[in-house]
Amino acid sequence: MKISATIITFNEESNIEQACESVAWADEVIVVDSESTDSTRTLATSSGARVITNAWPGFAAQKQLAVDEAKHEWVFSLDADERVSDELRATIEALRLEPESGLADGYQIARRSYYQGRWIRGGGWYPDRQLRLFRKTAGHWKKRHIHESVEMEPGARVEALDGDLLHYTVRDAAHHHKMIGERYAPLAARQMFEEGRRTSAVSIATAAPSAFFRSLVLKAGFRDGLAGLSIASFAAHHAFLKHLMLWEMQNKK
Q: How far apart, in whole angstroms, are the C-alpha atoms of residue 80 and residue 21?
């Protein structure tokens, strides 16, 4: 079982070395960079990665390009702000010793996020399972503007791995607010619009309180204290903003 680890980047000089080190156990590391203006590519190369430069086509398309460039059948996809935990690495190393015939086609991994100085347990942020280890002939990145994910071929077998993928998410409140306004909400609205979904004044008015209640209460975000309250509040802001942006799209002359 030989594995190609893939990472996509744009101006990730503060993350890329640790990201590459986190998957140094792989048989190759591929970094697909979307024309960074900092030292990302230089640092990735010095960390042992094979670097490919490609103009930004979107998250799913960029990740799929990395998969297509992989030399090996098995692909492990890592974001630049993620790290492989010791337990997860041990699980993957044990998996590599098993007969190929007994392996599943893809493996889901729980992702644990670090936010406001603590590891988050609730709010829908954990276990947040991600399919990140898979056979490239049995899966591909589904084309979406946001929340891209690996889609497996019909009949493919998917199992879960022990150990967490550690996610060092937004730096602070200002960064979180910026990411929602400039990336998550616009992309979510665009995805909804292209899927034929439409919104209304009622939906705009109820989106935020519904998202807040769901995150803080139904998904037990209250267990994370102030961090859980922040996550619920930003979830409400995101829900309101994406519906408002969708309304603007559908009413644009």
A: 11
Query: Which H or E run includes 234?
Result: helix 225-250
Q: What's the Cα-to-Cα distance from 38 to each of 12, 35, 113, 139, 184, rounded to whole Å?
A: 8, 9, 26, 32, 23
Q: Regarding beta strands 130-135 and 74-79, do their DSSP bridges make them parallel or antiparallel, or are they unpaired?
A: antiparallel
Q: How many CB atoms lie within 10 A of CB 210?
A: 15
- Can you tell me the distance from the alpha carbon of 2 to that of 197, in angstroms, rounded to the nearest whole number? 42
End-to-end CA distance of the chain: 54
Domain extent listing, the chain: 3-168, 173-250
Sign of the dihedral through C-alpha 126, 237, 233, 181? positive
Ordered per-residue pLDDT tens for the chain, 253 residues: 999 999 999 999 999 999 999 999 999 999 999 999 999 999 999 999 999 999 999 999 999 999 999 999 999 999 999 999 999 999 999 999 999 989 999 999 999 999 999 999 999 999 999 999 999 999 999 988 888 999 999 999 999 999 999 999 999 999 999 999 999 999 999 999 999 999 999 999 999 999 999 999 999 999 999 999 999 999 999 999 999 999 999 999 6
Query: What's the pTM?
Result: 0.92
CATH code of the domain occupying 3-168: 3.90.550.10
Please give the Cα distance from 230 to 176 (Å, whole number).
10
